[in-house]
Description:
- The chain is mainly β.
- It has no helices and 11 strands.
- It is globular and about 40 Å long.
Amino acid sequence: QVQLAESGGGSAQAGGSLTLSCVSSKFTARGSCMGWVRQAPGKERETVAIIYLGGGITSVADSVQGRLTISQDNAKNTVYLGMNDLKVEDTGLYYCVQDMNYCPLTGTYDFAYWGQGTQVTVSS
């Protein structure tokens, strides 16, 4: 069983920045990938960023391209979601996810492991 612990959510003004963190209990699993999925009120769940831990390959959704970045710190078993130039539509519950095989950016994939979620609220 993999445990994921998110932190860093909160409130921010539009145009501001936040950084979300996610610590994994099984960070070094071969072939593993992690990502961030957000659930906004009244909207479909959206995978906004993924990273393959072995090679550091990343992908970011078109909707957040240029504003959100995903990165990893192997020494801390942590994946980060850097959020810049925040918009009101970035408001939502952000879940850290991990899978041992596949992390698609599109669709509503049922990742193997999910964190509890951290709330991001952006005001105008």
